[in-house]
Amino acid sequence: MRQLHLNLFIHGRGHHEAAWRHPAASPLGLADIRYYTGLAQQAEAGLFDSIFLADTLAVGDDVAHAPRAWLEPVTALAAIAGATRRIGLIATCSTTYTEPYNLARQFASLDHISGGRVGWNIVTTWLAAAGRNYGEEAQPSHAGRYARAEEYMQAVTALWDSWADDAVLDDRAAGRYAAPGRIRRIDHAGAHYRVAGPLNLPRGPQGRPVFVQAGSSETGRGFAARHAEAVFTAQMEKATAVEFYADLKARAAALGRPANQVLVLPGLCPVIGGTEAEAQRIWRELGDLSDPEVGRQRLSGRFGGHDFTHLPLDRPLAPEDFPDPATVQAARSRTEVIVGLVRREAPTLRQLLDYLAGARGHFVTLGTPEQVADLIEDWFTTGAADGFNLMPPVLPAMLGGFIEQVVPLLQRRGLFRREYGAETLRGHYGLPRPEARFPGHP
Amino acid sequence: MRQLHLNLFIHGRGHHEAAWRHPAASPLGLADIRYYTGLAQQAEAGLFDSIFLADTLAVGDDVAHAPRAWLEPVTALAAIAGATRRIGLIATCSTTYTEPYNLARQFASLDHISGGRVGWNIVTTWLAAAGRNYGEEAQPSHAGRYARAEEYMQAVTALWDSWADDAVLDDRAAGRYAAPGRIRRIDHAGAHYRVAGPLNLPRGPQGRPVFVQAGSSETGRGFAARHAEAVFTAQMEKATAVEFYADLKARAAALGRPANQVLVLPGLCPVIGGTEAEAQRIWRELGDLSDPEVGRQRLSGRFGGHDFTHLPLDRPLAPEDFPDPATVQAARSRTEVIVGLVRREAPTLRQLLDYLAGARGHFVTLGTPEQVADLIEDWFTTGAADGFNLMPPVLPAMLGGFIEQVVPLLQRRGLFRREYGAETLRGHYGLPRPEARFPGHP
């Protein structure tokens, strides 16, 4: 039977905007590695496939009012690797602001360190403030970032393939460390990058990290269909999730890729109560801790700095209140999702901010453990998801609630593993281990 | 009483060129994190101040005959941090090939992860093959690399100082995460870098990583006097070590820096036997495992690819057999040391390669534990060293021998700690914690 995949998305003290202030949130600081290690161990005890650290390459303007700072993902996951044994470890890293040789090395090293458990969430970085931390006056356009990312993928994949799996002999008696024909230069020379190679460490247990992607714009979907092995996506309703799922699988199939090698994992923020009323109470409690002005500033950031200052909180919104998503050189797909919601439901700004506070435009559901399990089963069995990018509102408490109350229901229904069946992230996700391709050297 | 500092330099399966083939070397692979973790724990049990991982940004041409590949240092040390509690962790990272914002973040993150134990070995990277992995046809000149490195230090130091120590409030009740006046942009805009800042994580326990440097050329000494808090240096005899020590302390003093805040740690490769004859036997055994043609190729690499192919192994060398070190755009100080040795002692090429095989131009000494302790005490008390960058010929066995046989002698003489007295690397090295300087914002 087809099995569900669960990834824990670690973000601040939870995904709700006010999580960091909630009494059930972790008492630890956000630069304390024990916080992250503890969550990873908790998710591993819950048999999750993986954990995931997002990233932003600049501190948020609203850091006075919200925790916009965290450990750097690659170093954090290297530390977490030693404190876990099975769970996959997915780090975000930017193609726009990291040298290909450095990225390829660090992820290969992480794959060795973790025994084959690393995944790379490929981002092109849309934040103008990030560009200013990397010498740029104006950030490259959305299309420009993706064009560079395409070439970047060629270069780093070639680096990961520059050592054959059997390259290391380590023959101490004969004094032969490596089989020389099995380590090759890549001589990548494109419009944006020149990388001679080979990489300076042996191929990792997984060959390459698992490729994860989260861009859902038209350009992002094309990129995901070509490269991604797992896709994190933000969907605000099942109908769009089904559309996205079908579209991405079709795009992958058109490129000759098997549908089960491109997993679609929508974000899911479950607010779980013993009764529906209790879930509602928890949600209101979180809303009461939120500041709509923090939300307004965040919304402005999403729309490339657009000024929403004068928009009243309590009149219904119209699409005309927003700039055209096609003109936003940012995380375009998320802006499309928000304007789509406004078009369908005409919420007030206060209602919109209240919803976005839950999980920043990902799907939020309130209910009992049974209801959450029903929703997961429904999306999983009717073409909306291969699993979920779980975004608990408050960490670690509401991850604990999900593991204790929802996971057993999923197991009882035969949807989720009762023990780990594999050692690597590729194994958990059911993905093949790629052969080294030796590009440029047929 | 002034105390000796000991750093374990981890390199392959030991510092002797043939270590990887030696029967006493670790059975683990060189991409196996357990190898590095085990050495760090061993050094910590021996109360060492720190461990150190060097780095090279390209695979060696002679990888067929020697292990020229290893884990990436930053990720490896993040993993080691969790497996150790007290020992300092020093990673090499290149100013020429790493974005300042990325380096500042990863080292700040490592400092948080390790609880204030991280050091940064600042290198400008001299290898032409490295440049070709980063888009360069020709590598920047020796002087050009150092000019960029000066500006780089300004930018990363400003990033580490962009959060005041008291910036994080994490006041959950009041909804105030940070004191906004205590997190500031750096707006660095120089000839080579533009970095707006601030950094996106709080200041680490040490404020900044401990700055380590190993360039010993004229330019390198000036850079070390300005920035380094510990200097690893390669000296082939005590006389040059004394000269270097006095020169560096004088340069630092001229800049107003206290002499005890620039520690000088020469490399030391001790070949220890129960008797002198046994030490000689161990040395010959290692020599017998070495291939002079591997050494010849390495020597060529040191001299910027100069061709030594036709030089006979067994006639005495003269300085004219080498290119002028001033013309070598590489690790210039090491080439000066080698040509100096040739001028003084006129060894044959075979003898030179045999010596360099021991520790690549660092000081090698053969003797009993008493003799090694005598040498350490002599250098330490007569102005040649503040401690040593220990380079055991074979790992982990010969580190174990040093800890079991030499460390107790040093302790008995009152030269070395009997327990850790501090929690951070700055504490071990006796260095102050720097105040945040808030550059550009007086």
TrEMBL record, chains A, B:
<feature type="domain" description="Luciferase-like">
    <location>
        <begin position="21"/>
        <end position="384"/>
    </location>
</feature>
<dbReference type="Pfam" id="PF00296">
    <property type="entry name" value="Bac_luciferase"/>
</dbReference>
<keyword id="KW-0288">FMN</keyword>
<dbReference type="GO" id="GO:0016491">
    <property type="term" value="F:oxidoreductase activity"/>
</dbReference>
<dbReference type="InterPro" id="IPR036661">
    <property type="entry name" value="Luciferase-like_sf"/>
</dbReference>
<dbReference type="InterPro" id="IPR011251">
    <property type="entry name" value="Luciferase-like_dom"/>
</dbReference>
<dbReference type="InterPro" id="IPR016215">
    <property type="entry name" value="NTA_MOA"/>
</dbReference>
<keyword id="KW-0560">Oxidoreductase</keyword>
<comment type="similarity">
    <text>Belongs to the NtaA/SnaA/DszA monooxygenase family.</text>
</comment>
<keyword id="KW-0285">Flavoprotein</keyword>
<protein>
    <submittedName>
        <fullName>LLM class flavin-dependent oxidoreductase</fullName>
        <ecNumber>1.-.-.-</ecNumber>
    </submittedName>
</protein>
<dbReference type="InterPro" id="IPR051260">
    <property type="entry name" value="Diverse_substr_monoxygenases"/>
</dbReference>
<keyword id="KW-0503">Monooxygenase</keyword>
